[in-house]
Structures are given as C-alpha cells and as structure tokens.
Amino acid sequence: TDGYEVKLAGALRPGAARELKLIVSRDGRPVTDLQPYLGAYGHLVALRSGDLAYLHVHPNGEPGDGTTAAGPDISFTATAPSDGSYRLFLDFKHQGKVHTAAFTVRTSETATEDTPPHESADEHSH
Length: 126
Known about the structure:
By secondary structure, the protein is mainly beta.
C-alpha cells in the first residue's frame, strides 16, 4: 500500500547469527530518506508459528553514527531459537508515517546466505 515494497534478503537459521537485509522502495525507487523510529531506522519482530516465541531485533548501526545510511537497506543480525515457520514484521518510518511490512519464512527455506529475496506479503501503515 502507499506504493511501498519491502524485500527480504538473507537467511534466518536456528542457533546461528545471520544477517537479514530488508530493502525498502516506493513506486519502484529506493527509499533513501528513512526517518528514525524509536531510535532506529527499523525494528524487526519475529513470531514462531505454533507457540508464538518472540524475537525483537534492532538494526545494525544507528541513525547519526556516520556510517548507517537512511535506506534503502536496513540490516539486522538475528538468530532463530529453533527450526520452524516465522512471521516477520518490519516497522519503518518514512515521510512522518510508520509502516509495517510482513513476511512468512521457514528456517528450512532460508538455510543459505544465497537465498533470493522474499517480497513483503503485505504492508500497511499506521
């Protein structure tokens, strides 16, 4: 919605820290002016199917540190607690509004670093 598209690249794997990169675009163009939301360019929450185990991950780097760009990439390092299906939610702020992108991934589907990007299954703003 609102023309945003978020792609997920990387591998969520049980017991191993892995980089997940979320790439934000709008109307086919990279978003390079994300705004800090709760002190970061993005917040990632993962819920495991079945028991709803919860994982909240902050991005690598922070606004104003001299190295972290304001998009289009938001990079996270995450470790899945166990194998299974996870619902991922990314919150990011652009042009004064907070948006949420959602993905469903299986750790068995994302077992390598060379996994092709997943596109957000749905996105909404609030």
